[in-house]
UniProtKB/TrEMBL annotation:
Keywords assigned: Ribonucleoprotein, Ribosomal protein, RNA-binding, rRNA-binding
Cellular component, GO, one term: ribosome
GO annotation (BP), single: translation
InterPro entries in the record: Ribosomal_uL4, Ribosomal_uL4-like, Ribosomal_uL4_dom_sf
Gene3D superfamilies: 3.40.1370.10
UniProt subunit comment: Part of the 50S ribosomal subunit.
Protein name, per record: Large ribosomal subunit protein uL4
Function, as annotated: One of the primary rRNA binding proteins, this protein initially binds near the 5'-end of the 23S rRNA. It is important during the early stages of 50S assembly. It makes multiple contacts with different domains of the 23S rRNA in the assembled 50S subunit and ribosome.
Keyword Cell membrane attached: no
Disordered: annotated segments: 49-77
Native source organism of the sequence: Flagellimonas meridianipacifica
HAMAP family, alphabetized: Ribosomal_uL4_B
Length: 209
């Protein structure tokens, strides 16, 4: 599949690149996408939730009242969960939410997500670009020239570029990443995908394995 390469002003450069059918033209596997997104979101959880249980509460261990004759239920410890300030019954404990996923399934999920965006015409390829200095105004102009300034966009670069990254950092609906950071969640979460030529080469070389 051939697509036109655009410049930073959104105009065609007269060149075309061939998108690999093995990466951008497969039949999407919805279940693989679901599994990969589920794993990504699970890994975002810190799992450090913790409540003190009865044995961990600081307090006196003496019996707080006599066993009989009070007219109320017997009670042996101020740290009992039935009292204010006592321990919590079956409280949350630290937990590891990490999930394992076969690397072939993850690769299939990324290819499926990219194929979906390509089929929906939500993916464009631009030539490698840079800004003279970090300016949000320049990045907004770039998005406007592509007609995606109001979309949730993902711009994928071939390598680190501080000027482009810093120019996008103040924009809530846009994100700039390197091709090595691309994952299924970021692809699915964006309405528009912008790939530079160098990023395209990196993505295809990684996903064709």
């Amino acid at each position: 599949m051939k697509v036109a390469v655009l410049d930073i002003t959104g105009k065609e450069t007269g060149r075309k690149v061939d998108l690999s059918d093995d990466v951008f033209g497969i039949e999407p596997n919805e279940h693989a996408i679901y599994l990969d997104v589920k794993q990504y979101l699970a890994h975002q959880r810190q799992g450090n939730h913790k409540a003190k249980e009865r044995a961990e509460i600081a307090g006196s261990t003496r019996k707080i009242k006599k066993q009989k004759g009070t007219g109320t239920a017997r009670a042996g410890s101020i740290k009992s969960p039935v009292f204010r300030g006592g321990g919590r019954i079956f409280g949350p404990r630290p937990k590891d939410y990490n999930q394992k996923l076969n690397k072939n399934v993850k690769r299939l999920a990324r290819k499926s997500a990219l194929s979906q965006k390509t089929k929906a015409k939500s993916l464009v390829v631009v030539e490698d670009f840079n800004f003279e200095a970090p300016k949000t105004k320049d990045f907004v102009s770039f998005l406007t020239s592509l007609g995606i300034e109001n979309n949730k966009s993902l711009v994928v670069l071939g390598g680190a570029n501080d000027n482009v990254y810093l120019s996008s950092r103040n924009l809530e609906r846009s994100e700039v990443i390197n091709s090595s950071e691309l994952n299924t969640y970021k692809i699915v979460n964006a309405n528009s995908i912008v790939l530079t030529e160098s990023a395209l080469e990196g993505i295809e070389s990684n996903l064709k394995k």
